[in-house]
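Reposting from the mailing list since nobody answered there.

I have sequence plus structure tokens for a pair of proteins and want to know whether others read the tokens the same way I do. The first protein:
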Amino acid sequence: MEQKQSIYFAGLDIGGSTIKAVLVDETAGQVGEIIEVPSRVTEGYETCFKQLEDALRLLTEGANVSQDAINGVGLDVPGPSSDGVIWGQANLSKDWVGVNIRDAFSKHIGLPAVMVNDCNAAAVGEYAVRRKQVGGLLYLAPGTGLGGGLVLSGGKLYEGYNCLAIEPGHMSVPFRDEDGELPDCTCGLKGCLETWVSLIALRRCLKIELAKTKWAAHSLNSDDSTIENKAFRLRDLAEENDPLAVQIFKQQGVILGYAISDLLRLFDPGLVVIGGGLTETSFRDKYMEWVMEGFEEHCWPMHKKSPIDPQKTTTKIEWAQGGDSAGALGMAFTAHDLFG
């Protein structure tokens, strides 16, 4: 009797500087190590396709698997897309926009492919690493902006009709600058959550604070570097308990918690996962306390504890577990479910 050949599924996470790749088998178990190669997304999608091919080759060689055994590929992109077509440039070069990258890559490698945006992929990855998760999962990732994704109970990703759903960074929040104005957002609107919770927000708030007499003697005011470089230093300063850095990050945490309480009234997922670079900071426990402070001030009591059984927690808020590989894992699992 001829032995059945094992089949595999690849997940490719296309970042601004690196592509992360992972392989899973037909049981959805990871095979081999996670691979990283340069992404070169700013050089055009055809150049990036060559990098994706390199990643697939390194994946299969590292796992001692024939590339012919791959049944399907999942890839995520750092930009808005719908049904495989890139709708906005984001961190990509202009030639990506308007192109059905999913179908073009599928044809390029001769394998079926599926594609979502990077935060949706990370949401699926975070759901997948929690094998006992029975409810939904709302993923929030403070980074340069504020991305998000929603996985429904049972593991189905919710993208919306146009695949443009769950953009928490661009929901409106009732917070204003000291002059009473709503801050401008990069999306063209005002008062978006991203203007308060993101690296973009760190730069804006830091610039405002450094102009105050209160912080005239702060080390960042004697630094001649750009506001972008100063904002990058804030995380290290917060780890050293610097008062200015702590103040700014506390504001971000409280406002994020406030927004989470609103999102629960829409989705009630049962689990909220916070990802992004903050997951690796030494002050993350303190940041989570600030998130919970904002959440508890604004949430419905039933989103904390069951009114029927007070011992039952109705919503958990926790840090991401998948690390930098969550997106790649999410796409490998998506390919497994779709093409397995």
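The second protein, same order (residues first, tokens after):
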Amino acid sequence: MEKRRLFAMTEIEQNMLEKALLDLDREQTASMRRRVRQAPRRKLYLNEAEYDLAVRALNRLRDAYLAAGRYSDGIDAVILKLLKSRYRRVPTAIPEATII
């Protein structure tokens, strides 16, 4: 069994992460956006590259909000929750096609 970071999302956090990934390069994040959208029970298992991509995307979204003079409290909460995510074993019930 492989260990990956488990990010248990709420619906709002899922939407924020999907929007943040949408703002990055579309070809690079297409499969990641699809995985975020179709995460079973909103539990997303991330390898290190995907984790770095998610943090970078959320940080860029936060920077855009701050540059526009908007509050970034919600995005800050999602970033902190993502940074605190722990390593868990990936369950075997998840098909290998969804784990990239």
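Reply #1 (J.P.):
I read it the same way you do. The beta strands are 3-8, 43-46, 87-89.
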